[in-house]
């Protein structure tokens, strides 16, 4: 249902639309989530879902037949049906409601609840009227309310209780009251709203074209069908007025339109439905079934029932399960843990909670409560404990649940009507005031026993007195006085009051009517005035105000307005209906031709000529310089004048003016203008004067009409993709990426050209790197690390490790010139120190100092680090090494005519001398523009002033300039870096690339939007920017993720693996290490060869060449040459350091006892 709220004096109009969405009733609108608990809301959702599922099939039928749903006449009791694309609506007659106008209201019973009081009986006498049957002997009002008397014994007014509703006037009477109702209400108390929707006597409804009428207070409102509007729905809407058909012709229909599409087009042409959550379809009429899971997966688990809701679903779990999808088993209470209580599942903790029976407590209700522990019994009472509570046994004279009540029978005042209580043992005695009796003084003495009330008055007994309720028409303490209802003069407008029995009647004078003569008779209701006369209502009569041309009591006669001969001076009168018209003779005008025409009143004479009126004519007397019948012709003063150098002559009043060609000036354009006088060429450009123009010869690095544009030498990308181009004045500089060199970064850098490998190491050039092959005693990236063969101190018995054959020499580590860039090397024992030159740092002075770290550039300048220094790119208006000098824009003297120039930041201001104005004070102020000269004198403009002259050539007329020549505001060249476009009263600068501002004086910061991505550094240029990209990124905005492995950075058969952010990692083959696998693994770095053994580094490890006397993998074993039994012939081998010695057996000799000693022959002598 769609609820439409129309505001007509604070009432609601409910329109039910059925078909597209579910219907709502008033109850659903009144339900507040704050007043319904969770269970109620859950049951309400389930019931709504059940109703929605039952209507689902019918809803689809409505949608499929949406073009003709009213054809079945679904609206009852005279309701009007209206089709909608998503359903239909029933507009019900007044008083009838419901989606199909099926609810007919039952008129309320005026006796329910009963308005009659004091036990009176209410009887319904009509649809909305009643009467009260009062008890006998009552002096009462209309509803049997008792009539009260004031202090004087007189009856009070029936109107004191304001019985008349809705602002009605209450008229008091002896037996009741009368309500004078305002417009729109009726009934005995003006409680009924008059039905303003009732048809006229002719049967014409208030709302036309099927509109529904809604009754208001003294008014009505129409709810029109689609296609109609107006107070009574009398106007038809033209739905084609808004041109809803985009590519076709619109045909207006009743309550809609139809688009006849052109060839090649189709569609509704009027709306598109954006569905809310839970609905879909062309008209959002299909409720999405959230219970139908994707791929047949059930939304609710463990046999639960799924209820489809609007945009969601709800699972009704089977017993023993819980959770959003009934996926959690609830079994905590299966073991019956509660001893004396009831177990409840806890869905939050998946546990249980015991609710104990009265008299028990504990987590499992296993403990018995002792209520007497609190000792709640008072006044020494005895406490008896039992399951679920306790009982107090009270001592004498006390009572109550806790024995807290003292038995004082007078404590609570048992004696009524002011009686005095006397407490006694076990009872009390009341001493009553006069007029009362009984054990508790409850009985009132009846003062009415003597029947004091007269004339049928009813006596009401009171405390110590009585009151008489008088019958209608009587008053007084005992109802002894007759009431005159006319005493208050209730009749209005001089009506005569006639007193009756408990009432009155008004005899109204002529012209009035009503109960109290409150209404005046409107004699104009019959429209007695004819011929559109205006009727004025009078008392008992009327008066007609006739239109002009009519007369009579009812304006029934037409008048002859020409009978009085109103036209003067021979004018002819023409009688009209209710008027007349005068046709005037020549020379006269006016309503009665009474005015003489002044032919000069229209000011026919031009150019300040004098007009003389005549008889039907006029004559013009022309001033000097003009002629013609109306002095409209100006004499041609250019007839004998020649404007030189192509100038044009413009005639003026009694004078002329020459408009000179560009480049000339003077009265007759006789003087040539020097366009170079204002120094239009900027940035050192040379100005060449031309006829009406100039030309600027720019120095290198600038171009443009005024040399205002800086030539961007980087526009052609001379540095290619291997470097960043920095625009300079008249040139450019390439900042090459790592690995490239040359003026244009066109060559790959030879990293070996600086001989980085020390101590005779061999350098191998790589891309953006190098590797050193070191001699056996050196290692490190630059072979700077010395491999000391004596590091393990093989010298025994306190011997000192020295270099040389006998380790007697100290090594000078500076001999290999390890420091880069001509840095100074300072030798030390087993090391050295490099003293770097300015601009270099690092242990070997191999790294550049970032000279921009201290932010040396001021005033917003950009620092660009160089090899051993830096350069500052300054903002517009600043210069100097550190951008600390404000450029003096006044140094070229741009201000003319003795003006004072005030320098600013990237700008200047000209303070003009008296008599001049303009951006550069180039315009001479014409002091004659204000016409200061009087009495025909001519004004001649001078510099910073004016002079007066009485030259005859100007004295004849008031000569003013014609303003025919547009001032060239671009003549002073106000635009710094752009072209000037002259306008009327100003100029406009069309800035060159890279500049902005009113005068194109500001360089656009192209880096303000941070165009460089992925952490790139932006360098602002003239009309552009340059991005210095982080490693791994390239492109104009560093937006391209350059694959880091493309350049094969991993050496020596290493494997390159790329990572995010343009990074890479090299997995080196065996024997190599370093970020790029450029370092050969030096297995000898740990000095594994002992005893001065020589370590030889190999691809997969090391090899030791042991010194004399040692052997083993690490030369850790003393060489034992006797192992091989070098001594022959039973010689004995003795081991020595680095050798052996053989003790030969007898008869043998030699190094290995290999030589037999021949026997020695002795002489016989």
Layout: helices, strands, pairs:
Blueprint (H helix, E strand, L loop, with lengths): L15 E4 L6 H5 L7 H27 L15 E5 L2 E5 L29 E4 L5 E4 L35 E4 L4 E4 L4 E2 L5 E2 L18 E4 L4 E4 L4 E2 L5 E2 L11 E6 L2 E6 L17 E2 L5 E2 L17 E4 L4 E4 L4 E2 L5 E2 L11 E6 L4 E6 L3 E2 L5 E2 L13 E5 L2 E5 L4 E2 L5 E2 L13 E5 L2 E5 L4 E2 L5 E2 L13 E5 L2 E5 L4 E2 L5 E2 L13 E4 L4 E4 L4 E2 L5 E2 L13 E5 L2 E5 L4 E2 L5 E2 L13 E5 L2 E5 L4 E2 L5 E2 L13 E4 L4 E4 L4 E2 L5 E2 L13 E5 L2 E5 L4 E2 L5 E2 L13 E5 L2 E5 L4 E2 L5 E2 L12 E6 L2 E6 L3 E2 L5 E2 L13 E5 L2 E5 L4 E2 L5 E2 L37 E5 L2 E5 L4 E2 L5 E2 L13 E4 L4 E4 L4 E2 L5 E2 L13 E4 ...
Antiparallel strand pairs: 1-3, 2-3, 4-5, 6-7, 8-9, 10-11, 12-13, 14-15, 16-17, 18-19, 20-21, 22-23, 24-25, 26-27, 28-29, 30-31, 32-33, 34-35, 36-37, 38-39, 40-41, 42-43, 44-45, 46-47, 48-49, 50-51, 52-53, 54-55, 56-57, 58-59, 60-61, 62-63, 64-65, 66-67, 68-69, 70-71, 72-73, 74-75, 76-77, 78-79, ...
Subcellular location: Membrane
GO molecular function, one term: Notch binding
Keywords: Developmental protein, Disulfide bond, EGF-like domain, Glycoprotein, Membrane, Notch signaling pathway, Repeat, Signal, Transmembrane, Transmembrane helix
